[in-house]
Amino acid sequence: MSWQDFEAWLTRLPGRSAYRQLVDPMGVFTDPEPDLMLGIMDEIRTLQWQFTGAKEEHLPRPMAEILRQGFAKREQAKLDRDKRVAQAAEAPKKVIDIREEIARRQRGEMPTSSPKASNPKALEIREKLARAKAANQ
After folding, report:
1. pLDDT at position 112
2. Cα separations (Å) of 13 from 26, 32, 68, 85, 131?
């Protein structure tokens, strides 16, 4: 097989092949079989719409358009996720030296962290429990 034949074979792979999906995720819409099936589905949906007597503004959208938008959203989500992962990998890492804190704790000293504010909802729950416990005694 010559390189020209290989290139012709490679560029004409079906849209659902792994290589084609890697190169062009929307390539599945270039195959004739799914296009015919989607056309049939659109016609059936249009006939259903006509038989129900629905209003003009409720005309069903073509399935190919709906699927293209779904695939485009999925691919955009993948790109966004990859971008976030790349940004996280490039972000400078903060290194915390905890040796002093470990030494203080080994000497028996209390941690130097600041006290945290109490959760008001948790305080209410604790008060209710204390009242219920006092009422039962």
Report:
1. 64
2. 13, 12, 20, 32, 74
